[in-house]
Amino acid sequence: IGERGSLDVTMSEIAGRAGVSSALAHHYFGAKDELLLATMRHILAELTADMRRALRSASTARQRVSAVVTVNFSDAQFQPETIAAWLAFYVEAQKSPALRRLLKVYARRLHSNLLSGLTGILPRSEADRVAEATAALIDGLYIRRALKDGVPNAATAIALIEDYLETKLSRRSAQ
Fold it and tell me: Which domains does the chain have, with CATH numbers?
């Protein structure tokens, strides 16, 4: 799934790649969408653990916002296989209620994590808009990355988002 960026693979191919029998793969995961669901739960659990550590280390509201951005583009998250899984997740969530629910959980957590810093800097309504735009940048940069060849460049993605945040936050402090 990670190599192809879609569920256009058979369970036999997945099992063969994993070095297990097709029967064993079907026993544990059933259909491919269940495998994608398990994969994304694992990716999101790792993201959540990394996010908690990063947010605990942040001492200011602005550092909290930057921590959310940085964790989303960490070496553990911003790898070609993980990016491909995210792309498949976005697509398949349109068809699968279970994947859609998980995508909504992710979106709420991302928004909440961004708000945890932004509400210390901006009024709530403005913080909501900046959080929504920042989340869209994060998700959008993952999708754009899926369309490119080569090694993902996390530093460039982080810099683009930080530029946006600085523009929004510096306007606020200038008022």
Answer: 33-174 (1.10.357.10)
